Amino acid sequence: MKHISVRVPWHDNGWNSHVCANPRCNTFCKQLPNIVNSKVDCEQLSCGIDWSKLTTKERPACAGENGGFMNYKAYEREFIHIYAWNSDNPHSKLLPTKVMIPAYSALGIPFRYLNMDAQKDLSKEHPEFRPAESAPFGSAWVYNPERLYDVLKWFSSEITEESICVFYCKKGNPIDDEGLRMIVGMGDIVKNCGVQDYETTADYTYPLWEIMFSHSIRPDLKESRGFILPYKEYLELDENIFQGKGLSKIQALDEIKLSLDKFDSSGKIFDELSYGCDFISNHSMLLILEAARRSLEAVIRHGLAGSIEGWQCQLRWIDARIEHVKKQITPFPSFASALKALGIDYGNLIESDLRKKGCGPKDNPWGHFEKLLNKEIKVDSAVYNSSLPTYRISWEGQTSNVRERLITLSRFELESDVIEHFIDDVESDILSNPYLISEWCARNFIEKVSTRTIDLGAFPDPTIQGDNVPVPPFAAESILDTRRLRSLVVERLYSVLTDGDTLVSIKEMEDYLRDIMTEEDKARLPKNILLTHRQFFEVSFDYVPDENPTAIQLKEYYQMEEFLRKVLRERAKRDVKKPTGEDWLSLAMSDKNYDPTNERSQQATEQQAKALEMMDKKRLSVLTGGAGTGKTTVVRSFLCSDKIKAEGVLLLAPTGKARVRLSNMAENVSSKTVAQFLASLGAFDFENMKPRLTEDSRKYSRAKNIIIDECSMLTTDTFHALIMSLDLKFINRIILIGDPYQLPPIGPGRAFSDLCHYLNCDDADANLKSAITYLRTVVRTIASGDSDVLTLASWFSGNKPEKFADEIFWKIESKNLKGDLSVYYWNDEKDLPQILRDAICKELACSDVELPESLKQKIGIDDLKSLESDPAALENLQILAPVINPAWGTYQLNSYLQSWVGNNINRKGDYQEIGTQKIYKNDKVIQLQNILRESYPSKEKYPLSNGQIGFVKSINKGHINVMYVGIPHETFGFRGDKGEDQDAAIELAYAITIHKSQGSDFDTVFVVLPKTGRILSRELIYTALTRAKKRVVLLVQDSIGWLREFTKPQASVLARRNTNLFDYSVRAERLNIPYVEGLIHGTAKKGLFVRSKSEVVIVNQLVNAGVEFEYEQLLEENGHRCIPDFSFETPWGDRIIWEHLGMLVVPEYKASWERKLKFYEEIGYTLGENLFTTCDHENGAIMTEEVEDVIRKIKEQL
């Protein structure tokens, strides 16, 4: 007997065998290829109509993907074999076969076991199966009916009325932006209909791949054995209802959702919820049931959906199923895997035969195995009989310690490679501490093993282990066992790396442990347990700081940050031995954009010359600045130096697109992606796509100058691997370039941002400060004037905007934009397509009818010969969105644009399926992998990079031939590969995610911004706004008002990260925001974060003086709006304003303040009376005396 998982598409009407209530908005189901490729357009059907009223051909495609597994009445479904259309195939004799689907039924296809790649291992487990045959054409699936019947009947035989069925959404749901593996319901199997045949006109037939079964879930919770989680009901409730419960809608959904994070992000459960219909092990089922119990407890606690009595019935069902599953678990679940680790084939078959020969489900199979080896047990005609003498020699040749370790390891659900490691690692004392297994697996990113995996074999439980209960010192007798707690902490420290944290506060970690204890056994975690047992715990992780610690950190990350801190700091302090002596000012002035008559141009050139001198002089230097400030110009000027080029230059970037852009800055200069560079030195693990330094990794010592662009995208471990891979005694200069306010890296740390703020902090010495140049003058708009886009973007950077930058919000709201920014509004998913289409028409100055041709012209696909010579035209226009799956996500937007361009019109066969998309000739696509690929016609190999934009030049014999920006006249072939599981090499790129756009820029950018979404942050919006070279078109949901909230420091995802690279920046608790100087500025006023260090001084002194104030409170006068720094209200109701002026030495800032001052004067504010100012001095500091003087003058009026 096995439990099973069944994949279902997201359905907004409870999977009730009706059309969705709002089909247009349910784009999540389109991650399944059979749905996205359906000829039935659900948007044309009546919302909510019963499927039984439609013919089979009229039904939505989700009817064939278990979209109606909660059908309350039977309906008929017709099956047509996918190969039946071809008269050369034997399948052409198979007839359309009608099957009645009973009420509350689903169908499952065991794709894992029907794939040809699985047949070799399957034959070892089941030598009785008839041989598998491949199709005579390109197909991944078993072809011959004999093998199909064997596999399907075996799979079906394991599904009984004792099995539990778990229904899950694989990709795409409205609960979670990531959308990976979310369970929607579970229940008992009540009937298995077995393997069914196709009707046929021949004397042979083939089986239906679908195995049909009925389940026990019912809408009435009191009558049901199983449940559907109330996601639908929660989504339909107003946010105010949740606030009445003291939480947000997102928080409530997080508490009830059953996703991978509720199972310790189990890689094993992820795998079991991946193949359409698959087996779920008893161990995994136990984890799922325990997590489901916690979810239902949250539903009951919220009291927002269904009757509490009904949900309590379901809790009793869960408890009964937990007891049932425990009885099914064997005490040695990895016996077969242990045999495989020992080099013994047919482990599963041997175990099965031993069970048939008297080894009970709760017996120890090892004794029976020895009897088999000694011929005390005989299995006639077993395929392994001839190997038994060899197996006996192997077994008897093991030491008693190895045998004991094998038996011990088989108590846990482990795969053979893990067992093999611990057989060899005799120094690992797993016999007294089995939790070393889960610690090692966490350290090696083996996600299929967790602390809970070890719990099931370490805690004595006769229901699971029968008479084979573990005993001390091996056994765990309390959930507070320090061995177990240490394992949980190690797992958590690795888990939070994906959130960006390189360390965690002791308090937050103890809160995390306390929550686990409460969920598991209502046990109370002793206070300060991590400090009390420090000696035992610090074997696996470090305490920070060493004396009076307040945080803990993985040892390797402690060492990484310590190494980076030392190397980056010391190289930044030091100068190269022999600077080139170039006249950098002359080089900077030679740029074609230099205008000696323009003050801003002069100042920008002076800043650039200063940057060039720094880059020449320092052994490590940082060049940073916002969008349009000339970082590219500086690098290009630097590479114009013959002296620099004579020393050798290596250009590196984290993305392919950034590498291509770097390579265009100079001829005959080597450029690579960071992954390519590390791989060339044996320092990159392509399987896990992570840096990996080994004893065999080599040091780089060719070019003396290393320039690394887009450094904000580098994780701490990648930064560490890069520096470690350089022969530092040989390298003259390391030059780091980037914008620290863009999106942080996907992974641990924010090394570049931390470095920028360390070099630029107030107490940094002069040597350190001389190693960073922050370009502040915007050069992109010197000729055209102020940029509305960059003004708006400045609000989402980590810097205080210019003084009259707040005018941009008034300009947007009053529709007074005249520059490079346009804003459109959409209400919901229904009107977004038309709003977007109208906006594109307006921007392209075309009518609706002319849109297809205008779009083609804009991105160059109207003139393919020109495009082949210079594919860069593809980047003239780009649409960006935060995420993939929702109706406002890139998947649906690409569908709209593809149809508007018209590549898919009247071209039925001129496409190829890749993943879940149909890609046509001339379609715009994006590369998704970093690969080396041969081109046509030159036959040369080119590095294709993740993020590189291209177009489909041709489709031929199942291959898509793509031409990329930066590689004219060459095409690269990709084989079509249909299916949501395929690791696609390319996808449509009319719309891409904002994350994917990082490191790229485009002429005109359309940005779709929904007002809801977990992924929204200050950095995300800033990154989107700074992708355009010429124009940005914002499509904002509802109004611009909510967007202003994301300008606040609290909206920074970068600042939320725990790091300890230069400054200790760690959250005290989960909900707190850590802050480090320069990233986010906390104040003495509770909950108030400000935008500059000087404002911290002002706020703290106001608090000390007992003066009430408002920070950045909107001021509306004469139809205009602005946002003062500080506002005060007099007893008679007048307002006093205090503005702090930060960068008056910058011409744009000074001009901006003068415009704002004029506005204040026009509405009745006078300096020294009801308008006060302070300013930063040349060293960037604020004078305390000046602050005290202004406070005294304001207090006199209050």
From TrEMBL:
CDD domains: SF1_C_RecD. The keyword Protein biosynthesis does not apply. Residues 988-1035 form the UvrD-like helicase C-terminal domain. GO terms for molecular function: ATP binding; DNA helicase activity. SUPFAM superfamilies: P-loop containing nucleoside triphosphate hydrolases. Transmembrane segments: none annotated. Keywords: ATP-binding, Nucleotide-binding. InterPro entries: Coronavir_polyprotein_1ab, P-loop_NTPase, UvrD-like_helicase_C. It comes from the Bacteria. Signal peptide: none annotated. This is UvrD-like helicase C-terminal domain-containing protein.
